[in-house]
């Protein structure tokens, strides 16, 4: 893994907490922005939840469920969540900060992950040619060798194993914090 990708991988979670603190400090939500932002963020949480129930990390290439439409549904879900919270915050600097984090932290991590997937799964190149990195395709990708062994169906056990409920919990906690901030402000 290139050195910047390694740094980005190690620093994304701590930087996420720093960003969350700055976000809370700078956010200037209204009830309308909070409702609209939460609706968008909920879509992102759902995308991440569905994706987590289809991925068997390091065991097989995920090409079913949301992975049949986009190669990175977990990151797409995170982007949608971020857009929702940017809407809720009503602060240009938060949007600029989120864009910078995506460009300097998440894109290098995604590139490193793709390099790993290419080396671990021979079918990845064919899959990558057919399925876009972020913006979903309109029809699902079907791998030639796809076998229906349950992998094509959502697994709540995988969802729980990947602890994806933390994304929903984190979004709910930030939403609650913003509501408290609005109530205390008035």
How is this structure best described in words?
This protein has 186 residues and is mainly α. It has one domain. Helix content is 68%, strand content 0%. It has 7 helices and no strands. The mean pLDDT is 89.
List the helices and strands and how they pair.
Elements: H1 3-26, H2 31-52, H3 73-89, H4 92-120, H5 124-130, H6 156-161, H7 165-185
Tags for this model:
186 residues; 7 helices; globular
Summary of the model, kept short:
The protein is mostly helical.
Overall mean pLDDT: 89
Distance between the termini: 49 Å
Radius of gyration, taken over Cα atoms and rounded to an integer in Å: 18 Å
Number of strands: 0
- Please tell me what the overall shape is: globular
């Amino acid at each position: 893994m290139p050195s910047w990708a390694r740094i980005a991988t190690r620093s994304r979670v701590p930087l996420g907490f720093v960003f969350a603190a700055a976000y809370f400090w700078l956010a200037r939500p209204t009830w309308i922005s909070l409702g609209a932002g939460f609706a968008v963020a909920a879509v992102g949480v759902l995308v991440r939840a569905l994706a987590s129930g289809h991925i068997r990390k390091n065991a097989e290439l995920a090409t079913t469920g949301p992975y049949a439409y986009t190669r990175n549904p977990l990151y797409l879900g995170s982007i949608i969540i971020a857009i929702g919270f940017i809407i809720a915050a009503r602060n240009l600097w938060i949007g600029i900060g989120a864009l910078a984090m995506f460009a300097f932290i998440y894109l290098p991590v995604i590139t490193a992950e793709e390099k790993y997937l290419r080396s671990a799964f021979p079918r990845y190149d064919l899959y990558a040619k057919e399925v876009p990195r972020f913006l979903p395709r309109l029809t699902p990708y079907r791998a030639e060798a796809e076998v229906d062994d349950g992998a094509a169906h959502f697994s709540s056990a995988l969802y729980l194993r990947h602890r994806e409920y933390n994304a929903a919990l984190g979004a709910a906690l930030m939403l609650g914090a913003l509501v408290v901030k609005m109530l205390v402000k008035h």
